[in-house]
Amino acid sequence: MALMEAPPASSDPGQRMATVAVTIPRARRRPRTQPATGRACVTDYYFIKRIDNSRLFREVDREKRRECFCLLGLGVLVFLIGFVIAWQHFQCVRYGYQIEDSKKQRAAMEEWNHQLRLEQASLADPQRIDTLARQKLGLAPPDPQQVIRMDGARRGGGELGTPELARNISYPGGENSRGP
């Protein structure tokens, strides 16, 4: 043990207190094989008795069985209702996507139809056809004698309603050759 001085506790510098350092003993653990203090050591004995329960059977409680089947049926019903609701929801989403795809396809078809109508109008332009006929096919406008009106009116002032047959005009150079 050592004697130590403590700092002054009072305002008087002449008074000093002495302190002593003491070690506290540690608690010792007892080994597990030894009994606790104050208890007697008793040996445990276990007896084994062979019991044959194979001939026993449990009686069926009809009330509990009915309750179990009712709960099972209710669970299946709730599952089926949930399944149907989920199926309808997914079908609705799928049909929504199909409708959007159909709308996009319809818009594309309408645009294509519009382009085809513009192309048809440009190809059916009478001035374009006349230019192609003169340049590529070498055709010329008909002479007034070659024109036959289908409404029955004649240029020469003849009677209306009298039939007139078409005239065969042969061109110089053969039957099938085209004229200038």
Describe the protein's architecture and organization.
The chain is mainly alpha-helical and 180 residues long. It has a domain of 79 residues. The radius of gyration is 60 Å and the shape is elongated. The termini are far apart.
Low-confidence stretches: none
SSE ordering: EEHH
Q: How many strands, what sense, and barrel or not for the largest sheet?
A: 2 strands, antiparallel
Task: Count the DSSP helices.
Answer: 2
Approximately how much helix is present in the residues? Answer: 40-55%
Instruction: Give a count of the beta strands, DSSP E runs of length 2 or more.
Output: 2
Coarse morphology? elongated
For the termini, the CA-CA separation is 147 Å
Q: Please state the oligomeric state of the protein chains shown.
A: single chain
Category by helix and strand content: mainly alpha
Radius of gyration: 60 Å
| Strands ordered across the widest β-sheet | 1-2
Strand content: under 5%
Average pLDDT score: 81
